[in-house]
Amino acid sequence: MTQTIKDKVRTFVIENFLFGDTAYELADDASLIENDIIDSTGVLELVAFIEDDFGIAMADADIVPQNLDSLARISAFIEAKGAVPVSA
Amino acid sequence: MCGFGGYLGSIRDGKPLLERMTAAIGHRGPDEHGIFTTPGAGLGHVRLSIVGLGDGQQPMSDSSGELTVAFNGEIFNYVELRDELRAKGRRLRTSSDTEVILHLYKEMGEECLSLLNGDFAFAIWDARRHRMVLARDRMGVRPLFHTMKGGTFYFASEVKALLEIPGLSAEIDPIALDQIFTLWAPIAPRTPFRGIHELEPGHLMVAHQSGITTRPYWQLDYPDRDQRSAYTNENQAAEELRALLTEATRIRMRADVPVGAYLSGGLDSSIISALAAGMTSQGLRTFSVTFDTAEHDESAFQEAMAAALGTEHRAVACRAGDIARDFPDVVRFTEKPIIRTAPAPLYKLSDLVRETGLKVVLTGEGADEVFAGYDIFKEARVRRFCGRQPGSRVRPHLFRKLYPYLPGLQQQSAEYVAAFFGAGDVALDDPLFSHRPRFKGTAATKMFFSADLRAELKGYDAAEELVGRLPTAFGRWHPLHQAQYLESRFLLPGYILSSQGDRMAMAHGIEGRFPFLDHRLVEFAAKLPPEMKLKGLVEKHILREATKDLLPPAIGKRTKQPYRAPDSHSFSGAGELDYVRSAMGEEAIAAGGLFNAKAVTKLYEKCQSRPASGFRDNAAFVGVLSTQLWLQTFTGNSLRKAEAA
């Protein structure tokens, strides 16, 4: 299941922030901020994606880099919330 | 205010070439034009008549015929200089500032530049020494470009005049493109046109048969940070500032035609309008842009200030679709790819001024560089403050205070805000510390560069080149002064004064004048202690103190709202014109060869479906579109190829 979540998150990040650039070597633990993949508006897009696609209501306290600043962290956060992809 | 072009070298058909060159920049001088040729050199000029209406025709030769000048701009202290020349027994035939340059050059040679207070670019053909002398004003208000072709040296006020040279074709300089997509502007003397350069602000160039030499005649300088400031008394400093600014405005009111003013509703243009209104007996005319988007519109402040001053005020509305409609023309005049649409409303504004019959406007431009008004100065201070306690959850909240107009930022946690601004960055000795987040954030747009362009750039780093261009003394300056230097020396001439300034005004034959950029005021402000300029997080403190009697409190105490315009949003809905679809289409992008066509297609779709995109997406969209238009306009490339495909 984790693999499915991570794949879905990776696809979203590549499509939405890397504009389909599959050649970009995006490591699971690479910081999305430090690598200039995401900006302040991008965080809000990411939150909307998680809420819409995984059915998670994110509290303000959840929206921190510790939860969202890499593919691995996002996937772990979603998994910890016990969510599965809405479309899965 | 005018435009000129010329050459040094033996060419055939010099006169018809000068006719074509001046025709290409005819918008800069709709009133008159003139050509001067002599064996081995030529000058052409188009004139916007402002001073010496009846006797200031150019190119102008001295009585001996040995010196001939083509001049764009104004020497604001020409009255005093003319009086001094007359007192020395010189006979001046005209009432123009142009003749003053000729006399001073004849007397002092290049050293005369130190006496000129003005916004100017000029070329003097010196037949005595068979050489061409070119110079540009200290801050870079007026443009001057040059190139070599077939052993002949050519120069002009705009690049489009140089493109008339036989055999010279426009080709984009990939390094310049990288610089624009990182620093917002090329690093002079580089321009987006490969092989075409600009004379840097405050520089002098002497071209003769044996070669070309270039040197600065003025440089922006700040005191060492440990040096005790000459200004310790704030009241005294405010008084001196007021006197200098009043004088700078007074001499910029000199013209044989009426002078108006831009009024944005902010502190700086309000101050200039207030000073100017007190100096004219005919009533000041003021001009503004309004927006139908609340986050950009300042009309309430504009109207309040116009009412307080009793000016005859006109505003032009920049509505959805206007920016997209004007954007191809805007790029044709900026002659540079741009990553913001902000020049477009100013293009519309100068059109309004022209409609009213005025030729000259004062603006408040330059105050933010000179007196530390930009948010980036405060941001750097907060980043240093956060850097002292990297784990603090409280300190990063200050960033939100800096950017109340960025809703995306207001909704973020302290941790995210800190991360976005690199608040934990401990590289406090980085010479680009103040600007690093901006450069890094902007450079993220380079993800849209094509594989071919990346390969050609070979890992080039624009920010590092900028570091290499900093003066030796830079490291000894206070961090605020370092940040001010970066803004004043690079972004000001490279973008603000050119793409937003001279080019948008001159597109409609309007001359902008900038009292805050009077070099005496610039030199004075550079010597002020940093805390007089940025007091805590209050920008332009000393300027507010010096002018508080001029403005209603609502204006005088206003926090700076940066001038912005809708970006990618302008090109969706009513602004989604055919040319946008064509320029951003996969075929056109592929034909241009500079960007990744698939990625740009996704960007285009994203910006169309969700207009509230973040900075990177907006900057990338505008940057790619303007580059595509640049290719189409100047190289005939890209879109034409796509259409033919």
Describe the secondary-structure layout.
The complex is a heterodimer of chains A (88) and B (645).
Chain A: H1 2-16, H2 40-54, H3 65-68, H4 71-80
Chain B: E1 2-8, H1 14-24, E2 32-38, E3 41-47, E4 60-61, E5 67-75, H2 78-87, H3 97-108, E6 118-126, E7 131-136, E8 145-149, E9 152-156, H4 159-162, H5 174-183, E10 197-198, E11 203-208, E12 211-216, H6 234-252, E13 259-262, H7 267-277, E14 285-291, H8 299-309, E15 312-318, H9 322-334, H10 343-355, E16 360-362, H11 367-370, H12 375-387, H13 397-402, H14 407-410, H15 414-420, H16 436-443, H17 451-457, H18 462-468, H19 479-506, E17 511-513, H20 519-527, H21 530-533, H22 541-547, H23 553-556, H24 578-583, H25 586-592, H26 597-609, H27 615-635, H28 639-644
Parallel strand pairs in B: 13-14, 13-16, 14-15, 16-17
Antiparallel strand pairs in B: 1-3, 1-9, 2-3, 4-5, 5-6, 6-7, 7-11, 8-9, 8-10, 11-12
Helix pairs in contact in B: 2-3, 5-16, 6-20, 6-22, 9-10, 9-27, 10-19, 25-26, 26-27
Summary, kept brief:
Chain A has 88 residues and is mostly helical.
Protein described:
The complex is a heterodimer of chains A (88) and B (645). Chain A is mostly helical and 88 residues long. Chain A contains four helices and no strands. Chain A is globular and about 30 Å long. Chain B is of the alpha+beta class. Chain B has four domains: 2-216, 4-Layer Sandwich (Glutamine Phosphoribosylpyrophosphate, subunit 1, domain 1); 234-370 and 492-556, HUPs (Rossmann fold); 375-447 and 456-487, no CATH class; 568-644, no CATH class. Chain B is built from 28 helices and 17 strands. Chain B has a six-stranded antiparallel β-sheet with strand order 2-3-1-9-8-10. Chain B has a six-stranded antiparallel β-sheet with strand order 4-5-6-7-11-12, covered by helices on one side. In chain B, β2 and β3 (41-47) form a beta hairpin. In chain B, α6 runs antiparallel to α20 (519-527). Chain B is globular, with a radius of gyration of 24 Å. The model of chain B is unreliable at 638-645 (pLDDT under 50). The chains are: A mainly alpha (88), B alpha+beta (645). The interface between A and B is medium-sized, with 24 and 31 residues.
